[in-house]
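Incident log, support desk, overnight shift.

02:14 A customer reports that sequence design results differ from what the structure should imply. Their input is reproduced verbatim below. On-call engineer (initials T.W.) acknowledged and began investigating.
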């Protein structure tokens, strides 16, 4: 039986975690072409915090959430949570009832049109429509992809959610990364970073990770060729040369921004005679600062190609689903919190300890015993 109301964590406005209210709300009903999903796990992403705090400005000095379609879509109250895993419990008109009972993973994008190769006005579930920090969610049937793999628990599958993996794949495809190329992955211990390392290996590229020294063993295990310690950026280029045999990086996947972006460019241009392609920088984050000071002469004289990346395309989502089903991608799950403890999860996320690697997932309290307790970070 599907209840008339459900528990959800509701975002009531821009601000700190006090704007997240755990309460009861009406259970959604699936519209034509939709499925109703009973949520079992939703991966936490940094975009949840940034949207909540209004940290997606498109003009200097602005405090807002992004609105590339021309008008704001983050309307309060809103249920956040993009990387949703669950089981179909009802279908809308036009959807085959045989899908009831199916376990799946959501392609989190709210697409503006049916194009498969481009996504010009990205928005997503948990931002422009209610997401997975709830017991139920209604989503498009063609974007809820069946993942029957029995070896993957629901929490593990949520850790492979599209917000990280599709962003990572779009960074690589935008920069036209090919097999054999040397790729620097910054922010390598986070969700997008660990996804980038795995995807480089699937595509035949060679990933070099930038992180802290205590993450070295784990990142090497995930597939990094070597790990460069970000605590000493003054000697960064010399250390790159030592690790690559004196060759520059072919491309950089930048999740950091700030002052470091200039250092990343250094690591691609120190020997242009050793290059076979233009230097390429994909940027999809700014954890080190939203403003970088770069000499434009360095960009155009060295012909550095810069690609801004936000989300991805239907084609890329379907490619990722295929790789997940075939077992070519592996979950990097750090742990889980109950939905009612989302405030604690937010604090934990922002105060990462030295053992933090991969994704945190949020599990509805009613699903905790089955899908969250064995991965608990709550100390119970």
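02:41 Re-run completed on a clean worker. Output:
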């Amino acid at each position: 039986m599907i209840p008339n109301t459900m528990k959800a964590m509701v975002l009531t406005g821009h601000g700190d975690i006090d704007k997240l209210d755990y309460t009861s709300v009406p259970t959604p009903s699936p519209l034509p072409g939709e499925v109703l999903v009973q949520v079992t796990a939703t991966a936490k992403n940094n975009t949840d915090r940034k949207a909540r705090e209004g940290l997606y400005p498109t003009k200097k000095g602005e405090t807002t959430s992004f609105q590339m379609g021309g008008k704001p879509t983050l309307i309060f109250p809103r249920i956040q949570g993009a990387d949703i895993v669950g089981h179909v419990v009802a279908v809308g008109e036009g959807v085959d009832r045989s899908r009831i009972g199916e376990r799946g993973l959501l392609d989190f994008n709210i697409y503006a049109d049916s194009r498969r190769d481009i996504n010009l006005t990205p928005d997503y579930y948990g931002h422009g429509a209610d997401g997975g920090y709830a017991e139920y969610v209604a989503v498009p049937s063609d974007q809820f992809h069946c993942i029957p793999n029995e070896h993957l628990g629901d929490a593990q599958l949520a850790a492979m959610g599209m917000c990280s993996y599709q962003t990572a794949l779009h960074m690589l495809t935008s920069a036209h990364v090919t097999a054999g190329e040397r790729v620097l992955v910054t922010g390598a211990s986070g969700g997008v970073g660990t996804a980038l390392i795995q995807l480089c290996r699937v595509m035949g590229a060679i990933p070099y990770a930038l992180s802290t020294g205590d993450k070295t063993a784990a990142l090497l295990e995930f597939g990094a060729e070597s790990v460069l310690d970000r605590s000493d950026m003054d000697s960064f280029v010399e250390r790159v040369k030592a690790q690559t045999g004196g060759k520059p990086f072919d491309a950089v996947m930048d999740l950091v921004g700030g002052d470091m972006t200039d250092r990343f460019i250094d690591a691609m241009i120190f020997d242009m005679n050793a290059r076979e392609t233009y230097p390429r920088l994909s940027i999809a984050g700014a954890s080190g600062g939203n403003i970088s000071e770069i000499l434009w002469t360095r960009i155009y004289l060295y012909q550095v190609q810069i690609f801004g990346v936000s989300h991805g395309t239907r084609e890329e989502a379907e490619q990722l689903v295929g790789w997940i089903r075939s077992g070519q991608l592996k979950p990097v799950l750090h742990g889980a919190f109950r939905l009612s403890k989302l405030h604690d999860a937010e604090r934990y996320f922002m105060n990462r300890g030295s053992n933090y690697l991969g994704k945190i997932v949020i599990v509805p309290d009613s699903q905790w015993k089955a899908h969250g307790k064995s991965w608990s970070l709550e100390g119970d």
